[in-house]
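Tokenise the fold.
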Amino acid sequence: MSRPFKIEIAESEEELKKRLQTANLGNQKEKLIMLWWIKSGQVKEQQDIGKRLAKDTSTVTRWLQKYRSGGLYELLSIKKAPGAKRKIHDAAMPTAVNYAALSEELKTGKGFSSYGAIVEWLKQEHGQDIEYATVYAWVRYRLGAKLKVPRPQSHKQDEKLVSEFKKNSVSSSIA
């Protein structure tokens, strides 16, 4: 038989019950149930909590240590990993000048012919060697731009015939 543990739960049973009903995440519900069982006197040992929740006693111990050190807020807080550093750091893109310059360059008729050209532009203008995929994701999804390159036209086409065709096709589609 394991030793009984002593812990003071600051919240009332009613408050724990209310929080339990409004909790969205299963992990938070388990932690609130644990506190509610301790407060109501349904469990006397950490092993009992572990068996009831189907968790290892070390997990229960870790949860109780969090509660002791920071209270309910610390126990229920969800920590998020910071993730990888951005390849295009703040000095290159998000500043207003650089962002505006790239947006203007994309909006002009000349613009960029490919994402590779943007990679080269960033290398020349900002001194940054950024991967193609990163530039593609930034331009396509963050800036919402698509590189528009006109379809190739035959050099044999007669411009008068093409303009006449456009006039006739527009007037016939309107009628």
Remarks:
- The mean pLDDT is 78.
- The longest helix spans residues 57-76.
- Helices lie at 13-22, 26-40, 46-53, 57-76, 96-107, 115-126, 132-142, 159-174.
- The two ends are 91 Å apart (CA to CA).
